[in-house]
Amino acid sequence: MAFIAQVDFKMDGPFGDEMAVGFSDLAKSINEEEGFIWKIWTESPETKEAGGIYLFETKEAAEKYVEMHTKRLAGFGITDVNAKIFAVNSSLTEINSGPVK
């Protein structure tokens, strides 16, 4: 069973193309995380929020990543991180063309 990690936090920027350039090394490093399948990056310049939706192979991998990422964000001065982990209902997700393993 796959698991989703939903993470969001307040951030002053950068956003858009500037975020894509500035965070490309971070994005590449996420690919190396244990049990990682994919990430959708999220951002809202209007509300100064960013985050992502991640898919992991196991709940343990998702939990480990959230713990590590929360510490990493704290190193950037971001301490109010919202993170939730959900099991994926693959049968229903497939009906709606969701990309799950």
Question: Which descriptors apply to this entry?
Answer:
101 residues; alpha+beta; Alpha-Beta Plaits; 4-stranded antiparallel β-sheet; 4 helices; 4 strands; 37% helix; 32% strand; globular
What would you say this structure looks like, in words?
There is one protein chain. With 101 residues, this protein is of the alpha+beta class. The protein has one domain (3-95): 2-Layer Sandwich (Alpha-Beta Plaits), CATH 3.30.70. The protein has helices at residues 16-22, 24-30, 59-75, 90-95; strands at 3-10, 36-44, 49-56, 81-87. It has a four-stranded antiparallel β-sheet with strand order 2-3-1-4, with helices on one face. A hairpin with a 4-residue loop joins strand 2 and strand 3.
List the topology elements.
Blueprint: E1 3-10, H1 16-22, H2 24-30, E2 36-44, E3 49-56, H3 59-75, E4 81-87, H4 90-95
Antiparallel strand pairs: 1-3, 1-4, 2-3
GO molecular function, one term: monooxygenase activity
Protein name: Monooxygenase
Pfam families: ydhR
In short:
With about 100 residues, the chain is of the alpha+beta class. It has helices at about 15-20, 25-30, 60-75, 90-95; strands spanning about 5-10, 35-45, 50-55, 80-85. The chain has one domain (about 5-95): Alpha-Beta Plaits, CATH 3.30.70.
Alpha-carbon Rg, integer: 14 Å
Our estimate of the beta-strand percent is 25-35%
How much helical structure, as a percent, in the residues? 25-40%
Along the chain, the helix and strand elements come as EHHEEHEH
Q: Could you tell me the mean pLDDT?
A: 94
Number of helices: 4
Q: Biggest sheet, open or closed, and with what strands and sense?
A: 4 strands, antiparallel
| Gross morphology | globular
* CATH topology annotation: Alpha-Beta Plaits
State the end-to-end distance.
Answer: 8 Å
CATH class: Alpha Beta
CATH architecture label: 2-Layer Sandwich
Number of extended strands: 4
Uncertain stretches of 5 or more adjacent residues = none
| Main structural class | alpha+beta
Strand order, sheet with most strands: 2-3-1-4
Number of domains: 1
